[in-house]
Specification:
alpha/beta
């Protein structure tokens, strides 16, 4: 199993330096990262809108070690909100945030992360769009859900993410599948111990379907984060059985992966949102994309060999 090995490497400074310096890295990173700056990503947002696609934007970067860095992350998102204001796309261009970027792992991190993310959520609401809180490793989730609940008191459209491979997630899904909620379900992309998470792909897929059924039969707004054709077809069938219209849930896929499928789903009338990451601190995000699919790792290896 290469996935756990790659996820472990995502925390290694030595591997970070090696991969960053590899001659073929930029070619592969460019496949998954839309750019380094807001100026570079705005044309991609506009192109997506022209094609009938929606986006959620992630300013990459998770290794925050000081309150000053957390404040810089907040300001990067506020800059993004200002640029989105000029585009006038509303919820067609929303944002995804990792609370680790806002200082969650620092001393007093829960309060610091809430203080930093609140102005971003407030600014997003002011221009008619939304923010979704990404899920990270299982040790951070109680804090994330508590911040999500607090933010929803003033900004009920604030979304959150749940991960199918965690044992706790079915219970979380039942609690979250309420009126006005926005919940993205993903399989999960962090290295988690067998004490808290399924390790077998088939078991993860079964859990994903069980959780997806809870969300579809609930009263919230499900966001299906998957590239798996089988799970996409199951989601469509569960949506039909639950009596949902096509605009009462959405699909989400990563920038640079299965782009033809993005367009196909949008052409069928589904809401199709592309998770679009940008920024300079791309390493952790990039390594999780490699871990999720062996073909991505093979593509990376070939790029290094041909550029070396």
């Amino acid at each position: 199993m290469l996935g756990p090995v790659i996820l472990a490497a995502s925390r290694s400074d030595k591997m970070r330096r090696f991969i960053s310096a590899a001659p073929g890295t930029k070619q592969v990173v460019d496949r998954f990262i839309a750019g380094e700056t807001v100026d570079q990503v705005v044309p991609i947002i506009e192109d997506a809108a022209d094609k009938g696609l929606e986006v959620t934007l992630d300013v990459v970067g998770e290794d925050i070690t000081t309150p000053e860095q957390a404040a810089e992350a907040r300001d990067a998102y506020l800059e993004l909100v200002e640029r989105l204001k000029g585009l006038g796309l509303g919820t067609k261009a929303e944002m995804s945030v990792k609370l680790s970027m806002f200082g969650q792992a620092l001393d007093g991190g829960h309060e610091l992360a809430l203080a930093n993310v609140r102005p971003v959520v407030e600014a997003a609401a002011a221009i008619g769009t939304t923010v979704t809180l990404d899920a990270e490793d299982h040790t951070t989730l109680d804090s994330m859900f508590a911040i999500h609940e607090e933010l929803r008191k003033d900004f009920p459209q604030t979304g959150c993410v749940i991960q199918a491979y965690l044992f706790r997630t079915e219970e979380d899904a039942r609690r979250l599948a309420a009126v006005g909620s926005r919940v993205r379900i993903v399989k999960g992309a962090y290295k988690e111990p067998a004490s808290v998470a399924y390790q077998d792909k088939a078991e993860i897929d079964k859990a994903y379907v069980r959780i997806l059924r809870i969300l579809m039969e609930g009263e919230g707004y499900p966001m299906i984060g998957s590239h798996d054709p089988r799970l996409i077809a199951i989601a469509q069938e569960l949506g039909r059985k639950a009596g949902r219209k096509l605009d009462e849930y959405e699909f989400q896929m990563l920038y640079g992966i299965r782009s033809d499928e993005h367009l196909r789903l949008a052409a069928e009338g589904h809401r199709m949102r592309v998770y679009t990451a940008y920024g300079t601190d791309w390493y952790g995000y990039f390594m999780r994309r490699l871990a999720e699919k062996p073909a991505n790792l093979l593509f990376f290896g070939r790029s290094i060999l041909t550029k070396g």
